Amino acid sequence: MTLLWQLAAALWEQFKKLKRSALSDEWRKSVSILILRLTGGVVLTVHGVSELLGDHQSIAAIALANLRIHPTTATSLAIVFLELVGGVCILVGLFTRWVALALAAEMLWAAHLIWSAGNSDWDFPAAVAALMFFLASLGGGPFSVDNFLQKRSRLS
To answer: Is pLDDT of 137 > 80?
Structure first.
């Protein structure tokens, strides 16, 4: 609980340090990263939970089977794990760059499979991949666990 309290206090201090002017580029960038990170994290976490709570097959396995691709159980579980745990990591900003890069690769792979099968539903995974590439390039921003851990390690 104390680590959670320290994280909340550090995020509050970071929030107070930013210039709150609507014209401040630093403020707009920080809030934009936060909004995009929260949006992507929620979308992926909800998607991962829905796959996890599905029947014995994940939604990803069913979707791939519709494309005449039959993944192994390990592949299906890896997809569910990446989207669920990766979504939570993106949501809180933990290992943001690496997780976002892995999720971007997965979403590009999904978009490619859907597109090459002649299906027109490739746009959503492509959009999520673009969002993940954006987060991979910028990181979690000042309102993230990554930032908290980085500052904590500098103090040690």
So the answer is: yes
